[in-house]
What does this fold into?
Amino acid sequence: MIGGGIAGLSAASTLSKHAKVTVLEAEGAVGYHSSGRSATMLHYALGDPLVRALTLASRGFFEAPPPDFTDVPLGHRMPVLIHAREDELAALDQLDSAIASFAQMERVDEAGIRELCPVVRSGEGGAVAGLVDRNGIRLDTHALLQGHVRSLRQNGGEIVTDARATKVERAGGVWTVTTERGDSLAAPILVNAAGSWADAVAMLAGVRPIGLAPLRRTIITFDAPDDADLSGWPFAKTVGDELYFAPESGRLFASPMDEVPTDPCDAQPDEFEVALAAHRIEERTTMEVGRIRSRWAGLRTFAPDRHPVLGFDQQAEGFFWLAGQGGYGLQTSPAVAQIVESLIAGTPWPIEAATAAELGPGRFLGQAA
It folds into this structure.
């Protein structure tokens, strides 16, 4: 398996119950790129019905992980507030309807918004209504990644870091991957979980790419208002993809929800998006962003239809795609890993919301590379 982010590790730990699994990670640590730079919230104001179904199917894993998976909780409850101005009420209604079958949402007015998150700007020019999910989960990325590392190793699997693939070839029914250090590993099935580099890995293997698009997203952290009690504050998001913010270790983090096309890379924050995050905080809340304490960026990689790509390539035997998780890879990872297990190990299909054909790479065969 190539790729040690949440997609690769969750699938690897699940598959390790059936076979010997080796994960090759190009960086010096797992979860270095997108997985380690995520906002790590489980919520339903993201994606479409398929993404929400995968999220719902994954929730039980986070609330009650398998025995010996972790010694610490995988997350804690954090309410989710989606707020809307007067001109956004139609969008709020649409979102309420879309989420209703996945989560219990509470409609709140201006007073309810202020009670839950006193800094959201309300009234004229500000938020006038909102939706609240009291059962959102703030996921612990480190605990989740390390739980999969533990599970994989307990089952006899292996993780090799600093193992960037430079050559991938198939001969005699076996895929062989050679790393830049000159090491070679071989297996009958190669799982491509390389995130933003998944198309590049495919081309290295002589497999047609599927048109994945890496998009940069920026996050800043800054000080909360003096004397603010952040303990009950929610993950707050505009109904449109404009801004989200939430408490973070005594401070606040925020993102302008930017989606900037980029090449696969070690993403770095751009000063424009950093300034945009601060501007939108001051526009949508009563807070002022003084000193920006930290800033970072990560890549969210999407397939053309913004659904994950899970399945064997129809033109390259033994080449399995595990790509295109976008910004929801963490919150859908348990369900996605079960789908991968079903497709590779033959276990029962785990979800009714989609078929293997709808998720497989074959759906892109008619599109230009």
Observations:
- The chain is about 25% helix and 25% strand.
